[in-house]
Amino acid sequence: MNRFNAITAMRLFSTAALLLLAGTSLAATTAQRDAFRDALAAAQQGRLDSVPGLRAQLQGYPLYDYLTAADLRYRLDTGANTSLDGRIQSFVNAHPDLPPAESLRRNWLPSLARRERWSTLLDNTRDSDGSTATCRAVNARIKLGQAPTDAALDLWRVGRSRPDACDPVFAWLEERGLRGPDEILRRARLAVLEGQFGLTRYLGRKLPANVAARTDQWLGVAETPANLSYSQPGLDGDIAVYAFKRLALRNLDKASDLLAPLVERLGLDAEQSHEMKRYVALLYAQEHKPQALVWFARMDHARMTEDDHALGWEIRAAVYQQRWPLVVDAINDLPPAIAGEEEWRYWHARALEEMGRTQQARAIYAPLARERSYHGYLAADALGQDYSLNERPLSVDATARGRVEGKPALARARELRALGMDHQAGQEWNAVIDGLDQAALAQAARIAHDWGWHSRAIITLAKSDYWDDLDIRYPTPYDNAVRQFANDNGLDPAYVFAIMRTESLFQPEIRSSAGAVGLMQLLPGTARLVARRMDAARPSSSALTVPEINIQLGTGYLAQMLERWDGNIAMASASYNAGPGRIERWLPDETMDPTIWVANIPYTETRNYVQRAMSHMTVFQSRLNERIVPLDERIDAVQPRYGDETANR
User: Fold this and answer.
1) What is the mean pLDDT of the chain?
2) Same domain, 460 and 486
3) At what angle do helices 493-504 and 569-578 cross, to 10 degrees?
4) Residues in domain Lytic transglycosylase superhelical linker (predicted)?
């Protein structure tokens, strides 16, 4: 049996380790947890009353109310009636902070609507319940004889399709003459601006022919932006801007040439003209073209005072072109709140240094170099200083900790963790930290850390605004597996920990919306390709939640990315996040300083990802007692081509 197959059977926590999470005696917890599992299964199947001994055994157990919630949910699904409504109402009212009570309430709402229990439905619908619940609630008001015109129109005036629960509300609007051609046309316009062209056509068919011609005109430019070249005065200005942006994505040079005559021909206002110039400038900047600087210069900077995205890209464009006086001028013009960000402090100093104004640069570098951050480390490199990690362990605060331990949700979260019900445990943890002050949040983070629940510990400590306990913020779980597979693949273990923290916050079973799985967030298809290259067993999606398997394949893939980019760690990190194909499109025409290249990664997520990974790696090198490799030694210059794969691009 090869090592990959052997570790497939390994589990993260032994039963004994899970029991230690609860902090109670082994015999008692084993019996209670076994009884709870049995009772919960019985409740979910409507059999709880047939096993009264289980209920008695679990009196006082932290998760006892989960049984009642499960029992009520079964009865709701199989035979809702007025009597049951009363029981559910009492349970929900008695347990406002219990996650299964909240889930029960949400599942109760459609049943109330089907049975036309309008008053009860209204009493139990909340603003946070979503659009379907809101539609039901507005319909309930109508059924109770009210006239919720404004609320009904708010539901209508949205440029996207609405859930079926809104249909009775919209029918009511039509019956009262409140959904005439003007309202239909208004919504059709919103649909165009949302890119919902099918909805626009649907609404257009409900309009008189002379009015529907307006929607045809809008669709003519929205769907085929090149038609803007022939558009005539009278075209809706916002739709013209929307179509212009689509054109710019397809043919930026053509769009930039069209901008001025289009503004004049259509009589667009100053705000619309500014939005078009802004979009052109941003696209040129993200494509690393020198035209970006021209377009930023044409913008009305009075409209940009709170536009940190555009202001940031104006600076990045000047950095990419190494127009250092422009960098200084742009940063000097920033609003103080934005100018104080570490990124702009670093580039201000860097630009001054490049201009030969060394003393001014050092005066900015010096305080920045005392910070534990990516740009703080770059500032320290510029000064030839050691990095400042500023470690300050969290002190014990018994009073603040007591405020945490006094919450019943803490015991429930602990038990759910011990039972392996991490999703439900996370819901309870949110109830734990809800409303806590900063001191109590910090102590809650320490509790989660002591449980080995690193994701919750890190997030909760951040909420407390306490940043200097590196033991909590930079844990090293799965240390043996990380060291073993890092060594097998020629990687620094600190780099693996940095990627793992950035990807998943050490959550072995997490799945992203894109389908990435586990500690190092591997797509199943990628994992299978890596496994084949490593001559390892083909992993299933569920196998990727096993830490050892995920780390083995994740380190293998990370090593492939490093090999792909000739050992350039910044580019390997960017590829791990965004894929190597995108990185190829971002290569410079000439060899480039890596800090300039990283600062100009077009995707905000990927740019931040690389900077965080490099910063995290520094801390993990310290925690693993490795030599801290300065960033200016660790990250190589970015080349215009790498090996055969980019030689002919």
Assistant:
1) 94
2) no
3) 30
4) 404-470
Q: Could you tell me which of 331, 355, 353 has the C-alpha nearest to residue 343?
A: 331
Residue range of the domain that includes 514: 479-647
Asked if residue 245 is part of any domain, the answer here is: no
pLDDT in tens, 328-360: 999 999 999 999 999 999 999 999 999 999 999
How far is Cα 220 from Cα 212, in angstroms, rounded to an integer? 12
* Cβ 108 vs Cβ 88: under 8 Å: yes
Indicate which residue of 503, 509, 563, 626 is catalytic: 503
Let me know whether 509 and 614 are in one domain: yes
Q: Which residue has the higher pLDDT, 275 or 645?
A: 275
Same domain, 428 and 483: no
Please name every residue paired with 511 in a beta bridge, in sequence order, or none if there are none.
517
Return the DSSP state at 636: P
How far is 107 from 181, CA to CA, in rounded Å? Answer: 37
Contact partners, residue 73, CB within 8 Å, separation at least 6: 44, 100, 103, 104, 107
β-bridge partners, 592: 638
Whether residues 463 and 487 share a domain: the answer is no
Confidence of residue 646 (pLDDT cuts 50, 70, 90): low
CATH number at residue 444: 1.10.1240
Q: Which helix (H) or strand (E) holds 454?
A: helix 454-463
Report the half-sphere exposure of 476 (CA within 13 A, side-chain side): 20
Measure the CA angle with vertex 604, ends 598 and 609; round to 5°.
65
- With 0-12 / 13-18 / 19 or more C-beta atoms within 10 angstroms meaning exposed / middle / buried, residue 437 is exposed
Taking the C-alpha atoms of residue 290 and residue 313, their distance in angstroms, rounded to an integer, is: 12
Residue by residue, DSSP assigns 388-430 as -----PPPP-HHHHHHHHT-HHHHHHHHHHHTT-HHHHHHHHH
Q: How far apart are CA 354 and CA 340, in angstroms?
A: 20
Over 90: is that where the pLDDT of 220 sits?
yes
| C-alpha to C-alpha distance for 29 and 430, rounded to whole angstroms | 24
Q: Is 377 left (phi over 0), alpha (psi -120 to 50) or beta?
A: alpha
415 carries an active-site annotation: no
Token pair, residue 493, equals: 């273990």
Q: Is 316 helix (H, G, I), strand (E, B) or coil?
A: helix
Q: What DSSP letter does each residue of 460-509 carry, written as one string?
A: HHHHTT----HHHHS--TTHHHHHHHHHHTT--HHHHHHHHHHHHTT-TT
Geometric angle at alpha carbon 312, from 309 and 315, rounded to 5°: 150
The partner residues of 517 in beta bridges, in order of sequence, read 511, 522
What's the number of domains the chain is made of?
Answer: 3
Residue 627 shares a structural domain with residue 493? yes
- Which of 124, 140, 164 delimits the end of a domain? 124
638 three-class SS: strand
**DSSP-assigned letter for residue 157:** S
Which H or E run includes 473?
Answer: helix 470-473
Task: Please give the Cα distance from 210 to 504 (Å, whole number).
Answer: 55
Give a yes or no: residue 151 inside a domain: no
Token code pair at residue 262: 């289009």
